[in-house]
Amino acid sequence: MQSPEFSEVVDRICAENGRFHPNAYLFVRQGLDFTLSQLKERGEIQSRQHISGEKLLDGIRAYALEQFGPMAKAVLDHWNIESCRDFGVIVFELVDYGVLGKTDEDNIRDFENGYDFSDAFEKPFLPRSE
Asked: Packing angle between helix 84-96 and helix 22-41, nearest 10 degrees?
């Protein structure tokens, strides 16, 4: 369950800019936890080590597909998340409020060359042509 501090931060962010649905912030937080767990399970990281924007994007994609299946893109659209950069905006808003940390090398541009949402969230569910 989310801590009261997290929900208060999300309420503040949404009151200030209202760009993304509050659930988008919780989803990104849970996507980060999912990604860290997957990477730790595969032995790619230890504990709660820092991960790159690229790895986070891959983990968020896997988490969205696991949670929402063929509805993943529709859910993200509903939350006004339209590109990988939007995930980065959410991450950096949470960094600005002290919920997440970053290194000096981390930058919003790390999220700009991710994947196409149609390819990532719709294509896996399309019928395969022969």
From this structure: 100
Among 114, 24, 110, which residue's Cα sits nearest to residue 67? 24
Residue type, 6: F
Between the two ends of the chain, the Cα-to-Cα distance in Å is 45
Q: 35, 63 in Cβ contact below 8 A?
A: yes
What single-letter amino acid sits at 97? Y
Tell me the C-alpha distance between 51 and 54, whole Å.
Answer: 8
Which helix (H) or strand (E) is 63 found in, with range?
A: helix 53-68
Domain ranges in the chain are 4-124
DSSP type of residue 17: T
Query: Which amino acid is present at 75?
Result: V
> What are 12-64's pLDDT values in tens digits?
999 999 899 999 999 999 999 999 999 998 888 876 678 999 999 999 999 99
**What is the rounded distance in angstroms from the CA atom of residue 93 to the CA atom of residue 102?**
11
